[in-house]
């Protein structure tokens, strides 16, 4: 990756910031959204 794009950086972020690409990702997103409604 670095060969084509450049150095890769890791930055602080929120674990709830996720890309949904699989059914499992969708289940995780639903769980997160459900928990936000209970706060």
Automatic annotation (TrEMBL):
Keywords: Nucleotidyltransferase, Transferase
Stored Pfam families: IspD
InterPro entries: IspD/TarI (IPR034683), Nucleotide-diphossugar_trans (IPR029044)
Gene3D superfamilies tied to this protein: Spore Coat Polysaccharide Biosynthesis Protein SpsA, Chain A
Keyword Transferase (UniProt): yes
MF annotations from Gene Ontology: cytidylyltransferase activity
Domain of life the protein comes from: Bacteria
Protein name listed in UniProt: 2-C-methyl-D-erythritol 4-phosphate cytidylyltransferase
Organism field: Syntrophomonas wolfei
Taxon lineage: Bacteria, Bacillati, Bacillota, Clostridia, Eubacteriales
